[in-house]
Amino acid sequence: MKKLVTSIVTLSLVLSTAVAVSAAPNVNGNVVYGIDKDNAGIEAVINFDGQLGQNLDYHTQLKKGMDKIGNELTDPTYGINLEEASFTYKNQLADVTVGKFAFNPSVMTIMDNSTEEMNAPLAVKIAPKLGKNINLALGFQPRQNGIDSEFKDNAYQVEADYNFGVASIGVNYQKLDSDQDGALVWQATAQPLKNLNIYGEIGKDNNDQDVAKVGALFTMNKFYARGEYDTEATDSQSKWATRIGYNFTNNLSTEVRSWAESEDEGVEQYNQVRVNYTF
């Protein structure tokens, strides 16, 4: 009887501990102070990640945008928004994510606008596990928001990549509207040197416009510099953009962002200074 009681108590403690660990999320995020020639603002992102079971993870992200600062490169948001809220089931065959989440796999870090993020209130992503060198992901958006027109009924996209080690090649196909052609973008990355990465994409975007973008990232100790150029940009779009940063510590960094757009009186350069704290 004593052994039975001991077993029950031990089991209860194990279950209680498991529930406590699962219920307590890992909280992380960052706070950014940004300033340009006209305005200043604060951007904040908070992530909550945890497990509801051995194979079931959850993720939630809250974001406050900079309000007065931003263009199409900084993607400003207003107020505090629920950016992501999803569950991911993992097994040996595939990972399945359901909910509201960002899914726009692109090698472009700054000029990432050839395809749209699948960030609807309800979406599904299936990522079969085909080996360490192969990445395949299928995204489906079965329900329309009804409020924001950027969310499309029955939208889907397919991302496939093959990693060679120092290089990779991939393709991203996205279909947002049955009445329009889908976006088809080929992507490639390479690392010719230890501290140099080059990348680019070519194809057609969601508006059936030609896409041809190139970029490079250089790192040295705590310093980094990234630049991207859009060879197909029109006169009203950003043709190039750069980000130069320095990591003071693991939590504190600063970055200078610059980009050029064509205006009525000629090409104008924009600059933005950001201080980022990660927690």
Automatic annotation (TrEMBL):
Q: What is this protein called?
A: Porin-like protein
Keyword Signal part of the UniProt annotation: yes
Q: Does the keyword Manganese apply?
A: no
Q: One GO molecular function term?
A: porin activity
- List keywords of the entry alphabetically: Signal
Which parts of the sequence belong to the Porin domain? 122-255
In the UniProt record, the signal sequence range is 1-23
Looking at the UniProt record for this protein, which Gene Ontology cellular component terms does it annotate, in alphabetical order?
Answer: membrane
Superkingdom in the source lineage: Bacteria
